[in-house]
Design a protein that fits this description.
Largest sheet: 2 strands, antiparallel
Shape: flat
Oligomer: single chain
Number of domains: 2
Number of helices: 9
Radius of gyration: 24 Å
Number of strands: 2
Distance between the termini: 29 Å
Order of helices and strands: HHHHHHEEHHH
Strand order of the largest sheet: 1-2
Amino acid sequence: MDLVSLQGWLDNASFAVLFLTMLVYWGGAAFPGVPYLASLGTAGMAIANLMIAALLSARWIEAGYFPLSNLYESLFFIAWGVTTMHLVAEQMSRSRLVGAFTAPVAMGITAFAALSLPAQMQASEPLVPALKSNWLMMHVSVMLLSYAALMVGAVLAIAFLIVTRGQSVELRGSSVGTGGFRDSRYRLRRTNELGVETPQPALQYLADGTGATTILAAPPQTAQPLPLSPQRLNLADTLDNISYRMIGLGFPLLTIGIIAGAVWANEAWGSYWSWDPKETWALITWLVFAAYLHARITKGWQGRRPAILAASGFLVVWICYLGVNLLGKGLHSYGWFF
């Protein structure tokens, strides 16, 4: 089997493995009592990670350059990054339910790359002159790894919002604990639409002057959603914590990638910053997740408010990575280049 045939087999096989792994994780979430499903899910993600790594390695050997020159290669690199970050998150959280949310992301990326892109976009081609630089590996690989980490963190924030839907939840305790858990226990706090904690209704008492006391009825209450079960609270706490850690990992990578890109741009174009659409959206992405980390670290936000901000970052990352190439041209458009 030549390298081209091997690549065609590996991309389809990695999609199939990730699809089955997604079903395994969903089955484990629906039927937690079934043994071995959690371990099978972890094994499936690890196998898919190795298969994608083998695909990229074969591509590297065949083309003679680091495989990050077109959309097909960058999609598989992001899929590899997502599976890697998933394994890191799963190890930190000790929870196999993380895969129920991250496996569909990795599967969708590989499906788009392997099944949707035409053959001419999947074929390797010689690098254009602007990409013949050692900065290709440094800048692009770090940027794509940051996208992968931020995607995982954002999708876990979306999962947190799904788990706590209908509840105004704020988690109390340190964001960084030992072994993936918080230092102090979290608690559920009900808040109204303005974020103000709602007190429990008190009974009203009326004295009639004779020493007797009449108990008046408590004021009517509006219907409140049922409180979360301890299992869902524990899952919400885990998702919130691991989302914060993944974004905390992806943000420095994004910062390093932007700085490396600025240095490369100065070498290639004579300017560190050109307000190219890709550069602009990279800055917007940086600002969104900087605001999230600022809210968590400085303001002490935890729970739904920062999760909404992180969830919006999932869309921003995809606009920065793919939407800019679809909606407009710029200095970074080299035939669907990353």
